[in-house]
Specification:
The structure is a single chain. This protein is mainly α. The chain has 2 domains: 143 residues, Helix Hairpins (Orthogonal Bundle); 158 residues, no CATH class. A two-stranded antiparallel sheet has the order 1-2. Helix 3 crosses helix 4, helix 5 runs antiparallel to helix 7 and helix 5 packs across helix 8. The longest helix is centred in the middle third of the chain and has 43 residues. The mean pLDDT is 89.
């Protein structure tokens, strides 16, 4: 029974670290259970119709995910230390520790502090205590490194969002920004840098998936809204140029970067209900300028899902400054 309980405890710890390292170090997104926890929390926040809660979204996801890892690690370690009477003993009397004392000992082992009033009572317990103390140190230090990386990625995301917003406060202003240029000189000279920033943020979806849950209640700092506006405008102004022109090629490169950003997102195209007719109504805005938008259903659905689970929708994308 003692061996079986130790195996169960170690299995819980192993599962915890598989999920932890997959999320923080693999560069392949969330671990299975971390993904579920963060998706559920995101749905809860999105259902709250007030965007004021968005400013707490990122820290809430970080704290809840970290708490989940620490809780499982603590439970697994506690299961190990309660497997037998001699697993933990009083450092002075040598008597077996009570359950509250083992709980206390577990906390100190994982925090790598260790006071010495309670100690492992067997060779097996001593070996496991050393391993578990080291595992607690690894989780804390790796978690802090991951936190700093996430915050840097969040700042990069906001920087790109603000950059796009400087072109215009809505789709109409962004459209006029490009139309007023001779031969799209600004776009041509900055297309490579802008595309690089878009792809850099796209990679953050995979390397640091937590970044996606740092929501914004303002248009200017909501990257998915800004990218949707830029995408809509680029699709329109590309119609002015022949396919073999430099302008057409530069615009296509930027559009491909935006599409790649969507493909690497956390939300599947069918994650949210997409109303193509409603979107066509919004896009009829371009008929005022003599254009007909070329719809791409799969990309539209991906945008719809990404917008919804960042707390936005197509109405906000096409909302003009004068309507605010």
């Amino acid at each position: 029974m003692e061996t079986a309980q130790i195996v169960i405890g170690l299995a819980i710890i192993l599962f915890t670290y598989l999920d932890f390292f997959h999320t923080t170090l693999s560069g392949n997104g969330f671990g299975y259970f971390s993904r579920i926890i963060n998706q559920i929390l995101n749905r809860i926040m999105i259902q709250n119709r007030s965007r004021k809660i968005f400013k707490f979204s990122g820290i809430s996801h970080l704290l809840l995910t970290t708490f989940f890892w620490m809780l499982l690690l603590f439970i697994g370690t506690y299961v190990v230390f309660t497997a037998g009477e001699e697993m933990v003993v009083n450092g002075t009397t040598g008597l077996p520790a009570t359950h509250p004392e083992r709980f206390y000992f577990t906390g100190y082992v994982l925090s790598t502090l260790g006071i010495g009033d309670f100690v492992p009572g067997t060779d097996t317990s001593r070996i496991l205590t050393g391993i578990l103390a080291f595992s607690g140190f690894i989780l804390i230090t790796t978690g802090l490194t991951y936190l700093l990386s996430v915050l840097n990625a969040v700042l990069s995301k906001k920087q790109l969002s603000f950059l796009i917003s400087t072109m215009g406060k809505d789709v109409e202003e962004i459209f006029n920004f490009y139309k007023e240029q001779d031969d799209l000189e600004y776009l041509i000279s900055n297309a490579s840098d802008l595309r690089q920033q878009i792809l850099q943020n796209a990679s953050s979806y995979i390397a640091f998936p937590m970044v996606n849950y740092f929501l914004s209640k303002e248009h200017e700092s909501a990257l998915i809204v800004q990218l949707a506006r830029l995408y809509e405008v680029l699709m329109i102004i590309r119609l002015d140029w022949k396919k073999d022109s430099v302008q057409h090629k530069k615009i296509t490169v930027l559009l491909n970067g935006i599409v790649k950003y969507l493909e690497l997102g956390l939300e599947e195209p069918d994650a949210a209900k997409h109303n193509e007719e409603e979107l066509k109504t919004y896009r009829s805005h371009w008929m005022n300028h003599g254009y007909i938008f070329d719809n791409h259903l799969q990309i539209d659905k991906q945008f719809t899902s990404s917008l919804k689970y960042a707390g936005w929708n197509w109405k906000e994308v096409y909302k003009l400054k004068t309507q605010s």
